[in-house]
Each structure stands twice: as structure tokens, then as C-alpha cells.
UniProtKB/TrEMBL annotation, chain A:
Keyword hit for Signal: yes
PANTHER family assigned to the protein according to its UniProt record, in alphabetical order: LYMPHOCYTE ANTIGEN 86
Keywords: Signal
Protein known as: Lymphocyte antigen 86 isoform X1
Gene name of the encoded protein: LY86
UniProt signal peptide: 1-20
Species this chain originates from: Balaenoptera acutorostrata
TrEMBL record, chain B:
Keywords assigned by UniProt, alphabetized: Cell membrane, Glycoprotein, Immunity, Inflammatory response, Innate immunity, Leucine-rich repeat, Membrane, Receptor, Repeat, Signal, Transmembrane, Transmembrane helix
Signal peptide: 1-18
Coiled-coil portions: none
GO biological process: inflammatory response; innate immune response; positive regulation of lipopolysaccharide-mediated signaling pathway
Record keyword Signal present: yes
Membrane topology (UniProt): Single-pass type I membrane protein
Its job: May cooperate with MD-1 and TLR4 to mediate the innate immune response to bacterial lipopolysaccharide (LPS) in B-cells. Leads to NF-kappa-B activation. Also involved in the life/death decision of B-cells.
Name of the featured protein: CD180 antigen
Alphabetical list of Gene3D superfamilies matching this protein: Ribonuclease Inhibitor
Main location: membrane
Subunit structure: M-shaped tetramer of two CD180-LY86 heterodimers.
Subcellular location: Cell membrane
Entry-linked SUPFAM superfamilies: L domain-like
Amino acid sequence: MQVLMAAFLVWSLMSPQGRGTEAWPTHTACRDGSLQVLYQSCDALQDFGFSVDQCPKQLKPNLNIRFGIILREDIEELFLDVALFSKGLSILNFSYPICEADLPKFSFCGRRKGEQIYYAGPINNPGFEIPEGEYQVLLELYTQDRSTVACANATLLCS
Amino acid sequence: MAPRVGCFLLAVLISASCKVITSSNPMCTEKEANKTYNCENLDLREIPDTLPNTTEFLEFGFNFLPTIQNITFSRLINLIFLDLTRCQINWVREDTFQNHHQLNTIVLTGNPLIFMAETSLTGPKLLKHLFLTQTGISNLEFIPVHNLENLESLHLGSNHISSINLPENFPTQNLKVLDFQNNAIHYISSKDINGLEQATNLSLNFNGNDIKGIEPGAFNSKIFQSLKFGGSLNLSVILKGLQNSTIQSLWLGTFEDTDDQDLTSATFEGLCDMAVESINLQKHHFDGFSPSTFRCFTRLQELDLTAAHLKGLPSGIEGMNSLKKLVLNANSFDQLCQINAASFPSLTDLYVKGNMKKLDLGARCLEKLENLQKLDLSHSDIEASDCCNLQLKNLPHLQYLNLSYNEPLGLEDQAFKECPRLELLDLAFTHLLVKAAQSPFQNLHLLRVLNLSHCLLDTSNRHLLEGLLDLRHLNVQGNHFQDGSISKTNLLQTVSSLEILILSSCDLLSIDQQAFHGLGNMSHLDLSHNSLTGDSMDAFSPLKGLYLNLAANNIRIIPPHLLPALSQQSTINLSHNPLDCTCSNIHFITWYKENLHKLEGSEETVCANPPPLRGVKLSDVKLSCGLTGTGIFFLVVFVFLVIILLIFSVKFLLRWKYQHI
């Protein structure tokens, strides 16, 4: 009995140490017949929630998304970096300002570190058709001093 | 019995060893010795013993403190700034900050507060900033009013507040910022605003509250520094409600994700009955323009129409004579003349940044803006083959011009003759086409700052910078020099008043010994991210007291005769160079250790050679080269012994020989 107790004690004391080293689970952002978008948070500190309302192969402009996260930084200034890869080759890189001091595009701009935000609304994207294949997308949201707000490793499967 | 004791001992031992682990485990980071610490995301349940009593600024967010009380921070009585963001605080007990007389800022953002005791904030003598953002507050009575007399900013965003009516005894005399972002405030009454009577120069933020009504006369003869009603659906309700108020800055913009109504002339009627200096209407749609749209804008000094879907501004707007600053960023003009600048004769600042279409500068579009001092035309896809005298006709007072991030510009000789008072000119990331031997900046005698980074300059044109008599700051980052070398005669020799010179990322391989001759005023020289070697150090010998950045070059060995050129500078950065840590570089390594106080980035200044020392900080390298004192001693002893041995053997040999004769 005591041995069991001691073992339990050891286990309960040791287990919190291992936390945080594991990767965050992979989530499905959308799944629609021929297109599937999976993502995984690459921020060591936290996971986040994301989904796209509809994701047909022919992406419509101004998609609606849902996004929930706890802010680790003030987001008066917020930028998005996107890097798209296919078969290990880089296809596209771009950087886009989401919140700027002189142009807060979205209503959540200016919210503070520690706030939980939930955004359900349009993202002002252009419409385009996704060619068949598998793509890796690295998305990063960061502030003016390059602190990470969110980071995602996404996979697009289009058949 | 014995196994029981054994198990108990085992358990005790393990728990003891774990304690040791947790206390030496994730540590707070020291940002400023004995003063500033960051302990975020460490799963701490108390203030760690490792924090010194002298701590003044403490970031303690994302830990676990369900209850905070007077013993929680009792040791850190010098605290000035305390950030407790998202620590799962439920209870703030009596006298928590009783002994923290210097505490000036408390951040409680994102904590599920259940109750704050009456005396929970008493103690600090000058509590100025209190953040109660997203703490679940629905009633302002929740905030304990004792000791808030000195409060300058109160942040109450993202709560469940529906009325801004402050409790009667709430002190507001020093309040400057009151933030009600993202709450559920739909109505503002006279009583609400009267509660803020004592505050002067107050800034109120109602962004993200859908204000549906304001009691008539609520803002009567009230004065505000700034009012924000961002994302409100009905602007005319707000403008009518602000009747007879005086407001420095009024923010009425909307957002991508907010539905909005088209703005008409009727929307702005209320503006006639109030005094506003500056107004922001970003991202709105205008329902066409009639002559009366801007009827009530006549007293405005600043108008911001960023991303307002504009293709032009109507001609013949009357009465906007007092407008000083106009922001038209992120709109869709085809030609600069479409802004009909003549309507704003007093304009000093004009921003047309980030135009969504290719912007044609046209000719003489701004010629009526004689008072213009600041013009920003960056990121607007501007392309011009012969710039800029016709385009910038008659801007005699222009001091600041930003044409960065545009398409190629062909600069003529004396390209800025029309704006002779320019003090700052930014052309970064705009490809400049200058014909050989021409001097586009000629006559800019007052220009102090010139940014030519990544302009694909023809640096072999020695007349390029001619005429810049007062230039202090020159950035030529990312341009290329012939053969990767700055020669004895170069384009810098005409700008002798230079104080700051940036030549980073220019693919430089070498710099001539006399390249910087005549630049005696220089105090800051950035040569980072090139391929320079130690041999280029000679170029600094005419310069003294420089901040010299040589990071990320190809410096391996610095010969001893070049060290004096480094010694006379005030700060040097040699990080990210493939430095040699063998005896062939011993003089430099010795010099480096003696001059550590002058060196910047010493953490990243590491050896590349020999392989065993790769990655070792230069300041930690210990080399023994040549003969040391003990070495010499042993050598002398050895030689002495050899001589004695030799004498004896000769003696012995001779004796042996004579004996056998």
C-alpha cells in the first residue's frame, strides 16, 4: 500500500514538470469536401482556437472566421506574416498590417495584454482558387517589438 | 515496520528534492539589476525568494494567485509597478498593499475578481494607474473608492458595464483617462457626465460600445481632451448628443468588422453646435458629396479620412480655411489633383500614404498649399520619369517629404528646387534613376536628414550628394559600390557636415584608407552586415569618438598597427564576425579585454577559429603565446645544465685521451 502511495506521490510530483514540452494538438479549421485545413499552435505558451465558416476549393472573398485567444501582449500594433510552402519549397511570403496606430483596421485593435478575445467576422481576403495539392502555411501574429501573439503551423489539403 | 519507514523516507526525500527543483527552477528574468524583474508564465504561487527586496518594477502576469492579501507582497515594499495580469485572482483582501507607499500602477487585467475589500487598495501614497480590464465588473460600485484620489487613469474595458455613472463619492479630480472600451454602454445621461465634473482635460474611450442615445444637453459646456466612439453605428446621435461641448480630438472611425451606415450631410449637422479641433472618420463610407457635406467642418483643424473609400474630394468645398492637417491615407485616388487641395489653403500637413491605386502626381496639384510643411506620399505606387519640380510646384515651406516605398522615380538635376526649405527627405526603397554626373539634391541647403536606403543608387556618381551643405544624417543602407569598395574619391566627400552615416548591407569588401577624409564631424558610423576585413580599420584613423558598428562583417584578424584607430573610438560593436582566437591575433584579443567598457554586443562577439574555441566569447578567451616567465626560467636552467654537462664531458674526454697516450 505504502509503495503504491509513494509511487503515486512520485508520479504526481513529477508530472507537472513534463507539461509544456508536448506540442499542442492539431485542430481542424475547416473541412469541406475537397478542402481540409488543419492547424497547430507553434507558440510554446498557449493554444488558440480558429475556424473558417466555409472553405470551398474556390475561396470566396471576405471570408468569415472565428478566432479565440488570450493576448500575451498589447495589440495596438499587430502584424501578420504568412509563408506558404509546397513540397518543401517556398511559394509565397508576405507581411500584412492588421492594427496600426494610425489605422486600426479591426475592432479588436488596441486591446490589452491578458484580455481574452473572440473575433467572429470578415477578414477582407481576396477570392482565389486553390490548386490541388498539399500546402504548408506558417502564420505568425506579432507586435511592433516582434513579440509573438499567435503562431500557427497549418496544412492545406486540397484534392 | 521497516519497509514503511523506508517508504516514508523515500517520499520525504523525493518531496525534498522536488522542492529544491522548484525553487531553482524557472527563474524570473532580471531586466535591470535589483529593480526590474519579469516573472511571467512561471506557474508561480507566491513571490519567489530569489526576488530582492529592492524590486521596483515587477511583471508577474500569467501565474497563479487565487487570493492576494497583505502577506502576498509584504516583502517587496519598494514596488512602483505591479503587473498581475491573468493570475486567476478571485479575492483582493483587506490591506493587500498597506505597506507599498510608492506603488503607482496596479494591473489586474483578466482576473476573475469576485470581491475587492474596502481597504484593498489603500496604502500607496500616489496610486495613479489602475487596470481593471476584463475583470467581470458589471457595477462600478465594485471598485473600492478609498485611496483613488490621485488616480490619473482608470481602465475598465471589456467588462459588463452598462452605465458610466460613477458612485457619488468617487474621486475624479486628477483623472485624465477613463477607458470604457468594449462594454455594454448604450445610453449616456446628464447625470453620468455630471459625475465627471471635477475632472479636467479628460479622455474618455467608448470604442466598441453601441451608443444608441445621449440625453440632450448631457455634454453642455463640457470640455474634453479626447472622446472616442469607435465602431458606433449611428454617428448623428452622437454628434447631436455632444451639443455645446468643447473637444480637442473626436474619434468616430469604424472598423472592417463593424456594419456602418453611409454618412450624409445630415449626419454631421450636430457638428455645427460644438467646438472640435480634430476629427477621425476612418473606414466610413460617404453617400456621395453635396456642397453641404462639409458645411459644419469649418472650425476643424485636423481631419482624418483614412480608408474612407474616397476616389476624390469634391471641388469647391467652402469654409475649410482653418484646416491644418488632412489625412487621406489608404484611399483610391487616381491622380493627386483629385483631392482638390485648393479647398484647404491653410494646410500644413498632408498625408496620402498607402493609396490603393497607382497614384499619378500630375502637375501643380498642390500649388495652392503654400503653407505646407509636411507631405507624406509613401507606399502609393507613385511612378514618375522626371521628378519632382512640376509635381511639387510652389511648396516653399515644405520641411518634410516622404516618398519612400514607391515605384521608380527619375530625378532631374535640382529635382527639389520647388521646396528649398526641406529638412528631411525620405526616399527609402524607391528606385532612383539619376543621370550620370547630375546632382538631384543640389540647393537643399537646409536638408539635415536624407534616407536613401535600398534606392539602387549609382554610387559612382560623385556629384550625387552635391549641394547638401547642412546634411547631418545620411542613410545609404542596401546600396552597392563599384567592386564592393569605397574608394579614395567617393560621393561622401561633398557632405562634410555629416554626423550619422549608415552604410550597412552594402556588400562592402574594403574601404580606402582615406575614404572618410573630411568627415570630421562624424559621431555614428554603421558598417554592419558587409564583408569588411580587419584591413579596412585604417579608414577610421581620421575619426575620433565614434559609435562604430562593425557587426556581421568578415573580420578575422586585426593587425596590431590598426588597433590605435579602434582605440580612439567611443563605442564599437564587433559581434557576429568570424574572429580568430589564435596567437596570430593575440594583440587584438588583449586589446579587446582591456577595452571591454567600449564594446557593444560582447555576448555575441565570439571566436570562429580555432575549432575548439568556436562559439566562445572573446572576453572569456585565455591565450598564452610566446614565452612566459616560468618558461624562460626553465629554459635558462636547461641551457645551464647542458653547458655544465658539456664542460664535464670535454674534461672527461680530454683526461681519457691523455691517459691513453
